[in-house]
Protein: Methylamine utilisation protein MauE domain-containing protein
Organism: Leptospira kobayashii
Amino acid sequence: MIGSYFLGGLFIVAGFSHFFLEKFFLRITPPWVPYRRFAVLASGVVEIALGAGVIFHETRSYAAWGLIALLIAVWPANYYHYTSRNKLDPPKWALLLRLPLQIPLILWAYSYT
């Protein structure tokens, strides 16, 4: 399924970005999240693993459910980013548009369950 390769690739790239753009992800992580650096790096590892998992037929369904859970779990960070935007961030309207983007991503992942 070519769509699963695209979905997997999207999350693999996003996962690696947690390591290359660590300061950015730390900045958008809500202050109430404990062990913020660990959370940023661990979520990157999880994104990579689930992205790889959705590519392979044997693990696709499990990984898709994991992606759904992950997308729901990281939504507060996207909302926090929107509400705490600073001058280095994209425009507020772009951050607002990103919030409902979780829905089609969840539906895309759900199509592989």
Remarks:
- The chain has a mean pLDDT of 94.
- Residues 2-110 form one domain.
- The chain has one domain: 2-110.
